[in-house]
Amino acid sequence: MYIDGSIAPRRMNYMTEDVVIKSDGSAVIKHTVDGTAFVGFIIVNSITKEELDALSERAEKEANGYVPPSNTTDHVPDPTVPTIITDTPAEDEEASVVTAQKKNTDKTVEEGNAQAVTVPAVVADVPVNAESALEEYLALGLIDGQEELSLKAFPEAQNFDTITDMLEKVIYQNPMILGVKQYAYNYKSLTLLLSYEDDRETIARKQQEIVAEAAHLVTTIFKADMPEEEKHLALYEYLNDNTVYDDAALEDAEKNEFKTVDPKFNDSFTTYGIMVKKVGVCASYASTYKMLSDLAGLESVVVTGDMNGVPHAWNKVKIGGSWVHIDATNNATNSGIPYLLYGSSDDTATALNFYLDEGYWLDHELDQFESTDNSRDYYVANGLEVDSASTFTSKVAERLKSGDDDLIVVRMTETLSDNEWKDSLITAFDQAAITDLSNVRIGSLGTYYMIQR
Fold first, then answer.
1. DSSP labels for 278-340?
2. Who's near 184: CB < 8 A, 6+ residues apart?
3. Are residues 213 and 275 in contact, defined by beta-carbon separation less than 8 angstroms?
4. Is-contact 375 385, C-beta < 8 A?
5. CATH 3.30.1380 given to domain 200-381
6. Angstrom distances, CA of residue 145 to CA of 138, 195, 199, 323
7. Which tens digits make up the pLDDT trace of 188-233?
């Protein structure tokens, strides 16, 4: 059973190596649940050694993973490619070469400026996220599903690092770019070559479905007088209550080392998955969050990196002038932990094993998204983060006595050992005068500790 009351079958994986059967035949067995990040303990009243040996141990899974487009560019440009050279050589002969190259570049730029730019109709409904003419040109072309883009008008694109950095930023920050499979740059013709998972007609159809659903959701999720913080919370809770993680897509991506994925899972890696089909992986969650934020007038960017060593995408959002982390993927429905990373600083994200890479933005501009304010972190703001076993005991006992919560989640600043955790819970139950534990389940994920009643 999920926190919202819905039910789905999930396989339990029992970890039997360290289980001790007591003299009365009882035992405490640690377990995980497939498709969630939940770790818990089951108290068994009676079990034999043979029955214990029959339980199989399987690996814990977490909800993340994305497959980035592959880059097949030859990193070494043709030596005849026109290039602007700003340092004038000492020798007159070399200077004349520079002059010729500059003239050739000017001519090429002029030819590029004369080329028509196609503006897809869908951008009338969705903002294009771009901060330069080159970024806008790339975004329009990729949204339109074009397979060849001349970059003659942009001599700066002849630098491999520049075009790769900018292209990745454009792809991640524009939710209407769907299913870019490969890209390469032909230095000789100054052309960006692209391939997609779908043809242009299919891309356009999916984009229209995305726009229609997004327009509906904006009027459903957000109220006109909502402050920005409430809008972010409403969006997060909508995704928790109405979408689900695509475990099968993650398994397929893992099998292929996050390089390719079976075509039947393509939608789960784009905005179409979560926005329209209500199922997807982290890339789909992050791009959907980005698009709905854009339409609601909220500042948000997609960020990329890894979580516990697995490729992952989530968002940074700006609230009250400060950037904070929000991971809409690892919500209560998908991970078992509500608000696992919500309103958090960089330090808190790192402590939870979220590590950013540089793929989502231009490298030299990344510092602008630094997150230092942790006051809006869900667990900090709600007094659910504690720093010792004794304060953990007190907090759990307090929540148990109130009787208001079916699920109690407390975050420690450091991980408790199994024995510390169990002893603290026993004391908390005693302090709360709770003796019937038959319907109580306990579990943990990292420094998060959960009690379900």
1. SEE-HHHHHHHHHHHHHHTT--EEEEEEEETTEEEEEEEEEETTEEEEE-SSSSHHHHSSTTT
2. 71, 72, 73, 74, 192, 193
3. yes
4. no
5. no
6. 11, 8, 8, 32
7. 889 999 999 999 999 999 999 999 999 999 999 999 899 999 999 9
**Angle, alpha carbons 421-329-253 (nearest 5°):** 105
CA distance 342 to 243: 18
Give the per-residue pLDDT at 57.
41
Q: Per the confidence metrics, is the pTM higher than 0.90? A: no
15 Cα distance to chain centroid? 29
Nearest to 200, CA basis, from 238, 158, 144, 246: 144
CA 281, CA 296: separation in Å to the nearest integer? 23
Residues 6+ apart with CB under 8 A from 139: 128, 129, 130, 170, 174, 177
Select from 288, 205, 206, 203 the least CA-distant residue to 240.
288
Report how far apart, in Å, the C-alpha atoms of 196 and of each of 157, 178, 189, 190 are.
21, 8, 21, 20
Q: Which residue ranges does the chain devote to CATH 3.10.620? A: 200-381
Q: Which residues contact 18 (CB under 8 A, 6 or more apart)?
A: 30
3-state secondary structure of 15: strand
Measured from the Cβ of residue 189, the count of other Cβ atoms closer than 10 Å reads: 14
The percent of the chain in helix, strand and coil, each rounded to the nearest 5, is 40, 20, 40
Every domain range in the chain assigned CATH 3.30.110 = 384-453
Predicted local confidence at residue 3, as pLDDT: 33
Give domain 384-453's CATH number out of 1.25.10, 1.10.1790, 3.30.70, 3.30.110: 3.30.110
pLDDT tens per residue across span 36-65: 444 455 666 678 887 777 764 433 334 556
Token look-up 């294009």 returns 128
